[in-house]
Amino acid sequence: MRGLWSTMALVLVLAGLGAYIYFVESEKPAPGLEPNEKVFAVESDKIQEVRVTAGGATTVLVKKDTGWQITEPMATDADPTEAASLATNLASLETSRVIEENASDLAPYGLAEPRIKVAFKADGNVSGEVHLGDKTPMQGDLYAMKPGEKKVFLVSSYIETTFDKQPFDLRDKRVVKFERDKVDSVELTRGPDSIRLTRSDSDWKIETPMTGRADYAAVEGLLTRLSTAGMASIVEDNATDLAKYGLDAPVMRIMAGVGSSQTVLEIGRTEGEQPYARDKARSMVFTLDATLADDLKKPFDEYHKKDLFESRPFSAERVRIGRATTGSTGTWTFEKVKDGESEKWRVTPEGGQPADVDRAKADELLNKLAALRMSAFVTSAVSTGLNAPILNVGISYDGGKFERVRVGRSGAKHYGNREGEEATGEVDQASVEAVWQALDAALVPPTPSTEAPAKP
Q1: Burial environment of residue 418 by CB neighbours within 10 A (0 to 12, 13 to 18, 19 or more)
Q2: What does the pLDDT look like over 132-142, one tens digit per residue?
């Protein structure tokens, strides 16, 4: 027994010693892993000015109340992300190893004529500068030094992409500037065609050329691309002859409105794959990225919402269907009713008696109605047959909402329209026929249960 207690005591002592080593000794840095020395003793948010010289060009950025500005070689807004990255990387720059304390020949390190020079000024009359030379043979580090000193040290090579910047790289390259989340109107004009969209709360609607619902995802996607799009290149900072860029009579115009304020992007002729463009509020002419240019060429119909119904099968409460075509014609009202703890559907033909509907067949009918979509939108000059619709559907849903949809036929084509909207578009014939089939199936009485009643 004494031996057992001795063993247990020894285990406890060893456990305590292990805990001490883990919680105390582990706090000490491992040999060779001491923290690297900072190149500059400065905090990023204290930096007020940065001067970058790379590729023979010098850019000066100054922090002002309105944000970072470029003051040399031109006066313009700086890219806020790039400016913040410069300040952050200057403050966090570390020496990974000292190569020479007193270097007499800087040429082997690429520091006799440094490729990159970065200087800063900060609050409290603090300043600093670092020169970057060649990469080490293993490409993992850069040779660096401070001007006025002879010590050559290494810094991580990843910072090269941060500091190797030309004026164009550091300037704000957004094609237009507007408050993305406050935009309440959008106008697109391309040649004789135009479309105007307005927002009410979270819903986008089309005002012209025909009233209707707008596709929320399409409109919001357009605004996101416009607010984040960058210039491919700057052609002229102060253009006076717009005709040579096709901007005296733009091919396309995009307007984003915030109240009475408007931001307008104009697009001119295309050279190569990149069209010329300008923000109407500025005198600058630039080129657009080909991807954005192609995206702006999409047909205006893409901004129309194409689903004829807003309700979904699970939200429908009452459906009134009128059919005037070959096969069974008439009007039927389908209504969701309580059936004990669950719900079921009943159908009442006009002037007739209600009857139960097979639940699966009722759901299938609702699914086929929800699948009705418009494709190519048409003007009022097109004969649509909507004055004598072959399908007339009214749906009550979501505890008080109501919508009515009509489908007409003219020749071999079908057309759909929502009550209260001008937008009318073609409807696929197969989807209309699928509604007929689902309606016919739903009107067939459910098969009676053949199960024998349970014995008492």
Answers
A1: buried
A2: 999 998 888 99
What is residue 227's DSSP assignment?
A: H
For the chain, the average pLDDT equals: 89
pTM to 2 decimal places: 0.77
8 A C-beta contact, residue 40 and residue 29: no
First CA to last CA distance, the chain: 71
CA distance 131 to 53: 10
Can you tell me the distance from the alpha carbon of 164 to that of 52, in angstroms, rounded to the nearest whole number?
8
How many angstroms from the chain centroid is the CA of residue 386?
Answer: 38
Distance, in Å, from the CA atom of 132 to the CA atom of 155, rounded to the nearest integer, reads 9
Q: What is the pLDDT of residues 342-389, one digit of tens each?
A: 899 999 999 899 999 999 999 999 999 999 999 989 988 999 999 999
Q: Report whether 367 contacts 313 (CB < 8 A).
A: yes
Domains of the chain with bracketed CATH: 37-170 (2.60.40), 180-303 (2.60.40), 316-442 (no CATH)
Q: Is 17 within 8 Å of 75 (Cβ atoms)?
A: no
As a whole number of angstroms, the distance between CA 281 and CA 256 comes to 13
**DSSP secondary structure, 235-280, as one string:** EESS----GGGT-SS-SEEEEEEETTEEEEEEEEEEETTEEEEEET
Contact indicator for 36, 61 with CB cutoff of 8 Å: no
Environment class of residue 319 by beta-carbon count within 10 Å: exposed (0-12), middle (13-18) or buried (19+)?
Answer: buried
Could you tell me where the DSSP H helices lie in 283-410? 290-295, 359-370
Closest among 63, 59, 85, 55 to 73, alpha carbons compared: 59
The count of residues in the chain is 456
